[in-house]
């Protein structure tokens, strides 16, 4: 076979259009990018990562978002939804008329008995608003007047990965852009020293939860990869591949990057591939992060009072408490969107012991972040969102007579989340569950509704921030979602 013809057979589609007809492929690609807004002129202002022209669509109430993700699904029955009448149903069968409305996982779908288990600890009222919360959340209770508690969340998902994926990307199937990617795509970012979208992960101190955090939870999907989240690790190098090779002086590294950038710019002119532009900017970002990241991670100059506010675990690298403090430092430096992913809430068989420990790990630092932002005048334009992929069943799973042999299964038909700052109504409880905390009784808030509301607070009309991919205009909320006016001021 002719070697030149064989080479052409192995050309990728991108290479074919890049070389074909003296730039016809580039013109077609440019037209598509213009239609998607990727080539639109940046808005006025000095953004290190420009957003789209015309975005925000209206005056925003919030500039930044930090998601305190509680992986494994916190029990709303035990923590947030105060229903004193549950006690009178203790160990009685949950009515089938109630249970039949909620989808169950395979772990309890075949159970023959569904005895009601009331909250394992008492509830208390907190703040001037008198918000009812579990006594296991005293620190979150101390910011009750700043949080908007949503007791009517619901989702179709009933397993962990699809549930997290649905909330973070708008689809239970991996591959869509995450909320942070959409936000930074539309709005851009003010810092050139750090990524616009940052992620940190942590695990409960007992390491009881086997749930994994997949990188598509903070991926960019079909958006340019510059919008994906950058993960900061708690051990070893905080960001992989950031350090210079051993023995390479700084001046030589700078010269190497300049030469690589020149080659990439030439390639970009030939092919117009936005991923080449991403490669150029990410090389420069990595170079700057060699200086900015060590300064970010050095908490030794934080006042003693601030460290104490976050709790003793703030001294441990990789802990949820330390990540909460680092989140505040990232927000101060101009980062647009942050996800703190914390595992440990999947209490199928260790509810009596692990739930209190998990609250101890997360309660104080969650509240501290709210207080810290408020003290610095940042809470009013920063959204702090706390919650997981779904809730837990009112009925008990396993053997109630065994302290470490029972818990609660997954439940998506009704659960709780809370938000603070960014225009969310503090001291407010929104939505009502039924008397068994099993189904939404009034003012339901679907996952897509919460996504739409967060975008709204950022000044984004969720129906208008779209990206054309494979012949269709995609958006975070798919074809669903409504802004919940009752959550916002």
Distance between the termini: 71 Å
User: What count of helical segments does DSSP give?
Assistant: 14
CATH topology heading of the largest domain:
Alkaline Phosphatase, subunit A
Q: Which CATH architecture of the largest domain would you pick? A: 3-Layer(aba) Sandwich
Poorly predicted regions: 1-10, 16-45
General shape: globular
Number of domains: 2
Q: Class of the largest domain, according to the CATH hierarchy?
A: Alpha Beta
Q: Tell me the total number of β-strands.
A: 19
Question: Which tags fit this structure?
Answer:
489 residues, alpha/beta, nine-stranded mixed sheet, two-stranded antiparallel ribbon, 14 helices, 19 strands, 16% strand, disordered N terminus
Could you please describe the fold and organization of this structure?
It is built from 14 helices and 19 strands. It is 33% helix and 16% strand. The protein has helices spanning 3-9, 13-19, 24-36, 76-79, 96-99, 138-141, 160-169, 179-187, 250-271, 274-297, 304-310, 320-332, 351-375, 447-457; strands spanning 64-71, 123-126, 131-134, 147-154, 197-203, 230-232, 337-343, 382-387, 391-392, 397-398, 406-407, 410-411, 415-420, 428-430, 432-433, 440-442, 445-446, 467-469, 472-474. It is globular, with a radius of gyration of 24 Å. Mean pLDDT is 87; it is low at 1-10 and 16-45. Strands 1, 4, 5, 6, 7, 8, 13, 14 and 17 form a nine-stranded mixed sheet that branches. It folds into two domains: 9-42, no CATH class; 64-240 and 302-487, Alkaline Phosphatase, subunit A (3-Layer(aba) Sandwich), CATH 3.40.720. The protein is of the alpha/beta class. The longest helix has 25 residues, at 351-375.
């Amino acid at each position: 076979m002719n070697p030149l013809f064989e080479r052409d057979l192995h050309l990728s589609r991108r290479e074919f259009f890049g070389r074909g007809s003296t730039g016809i492929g580039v013109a077609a690609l440019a037209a598509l990018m213009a239609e998607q807004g990727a080539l639109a002129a940046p808005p006025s202002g000095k953004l290190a990562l420009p957003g789209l022209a015309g975005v925000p669509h209206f005056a925003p109430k919030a500039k930044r978002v930090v998601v305190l993700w509680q992986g494994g699904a916190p029990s709303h029955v035990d923590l947030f939804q105060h229903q004193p009448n549950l006690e009178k149903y203790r160990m009685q069968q949950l009515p089938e008329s109630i249970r039949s409305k909620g989808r169950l996982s395979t772990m309890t779908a075949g159970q023959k008995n569904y005895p009601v288990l009331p909250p394992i600890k008492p509830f208390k009222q907190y703040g001037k608003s008198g918000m009812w919360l579990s006594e296991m959340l005293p620190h979150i209770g101390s910011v009750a007047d700043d949080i908007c508690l949503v007791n009517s969340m619901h989702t179709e998902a009933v397993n962990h990965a699809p549930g997290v994926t649905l909330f973070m990307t708008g689809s239970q199937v991996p591959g869509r852009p995450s909320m942070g990617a959409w936000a930074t795509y539309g709005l851009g970012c003010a810092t050139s020293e750090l990524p616009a979208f940052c992620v940190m992960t942590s695990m409960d101190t007992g390491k009881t939860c086997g749930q994994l955090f997949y990188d598509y939870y903070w991926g960019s999907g079909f958006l340019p990869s510059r919008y994906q989240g950058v993960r900061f690790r708690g051990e070893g190098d905080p960001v992989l591949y950031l350090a210079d090779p051993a023995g390479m002086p700084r001046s030589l590294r700078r010269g190497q990057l300049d030469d690589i950038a020149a080659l990439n710019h030439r390639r970009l002119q030939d092919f117009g591939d936005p991923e080449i532009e991403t490669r150029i900017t990410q090389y420069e970002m990595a170079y700057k992060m060699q200086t900015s990241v060590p300064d970010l991670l050095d908490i030794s100059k934080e006042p003693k009072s601030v460290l104490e506010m976050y709790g003793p675990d703030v001294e441990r690298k990789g802990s949820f408490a330390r990540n909460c403090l680092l989140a505040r430092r990232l927000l101060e430096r101009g980062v647009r969107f942050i996800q703190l992913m914390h595992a440990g809430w999947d209490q199928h068989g260790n509810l009596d012991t692990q739930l209190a420990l998990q609250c101890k790990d997360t309660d104080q630092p969650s509240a501290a972040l709210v207080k810290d932002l408020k003290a610095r005048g940042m809470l009013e334009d920063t959204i702090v969102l706390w919650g997981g992929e779904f809730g837990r069943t009112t009925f008990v799973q396993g053997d109630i007579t065994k302290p470490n042999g029972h818990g609660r299964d997954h439940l998506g038909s009704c659960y709780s989340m809370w938000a603070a700052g960014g225009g969310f109504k503090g001291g407010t409880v929104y939505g009502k569950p039924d008397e068994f905390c099993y189904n939404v009784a009034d003012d339901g808030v679907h996952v897509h509704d919460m996504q739409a509301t967060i975008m709204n607070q950022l000044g984004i009309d969720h129906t208008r921030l779209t990206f054309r991919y494979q012949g269709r205009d995609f958006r975070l909320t798919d074809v669903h979602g409504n802004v919940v006016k009752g959550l916002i001021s």
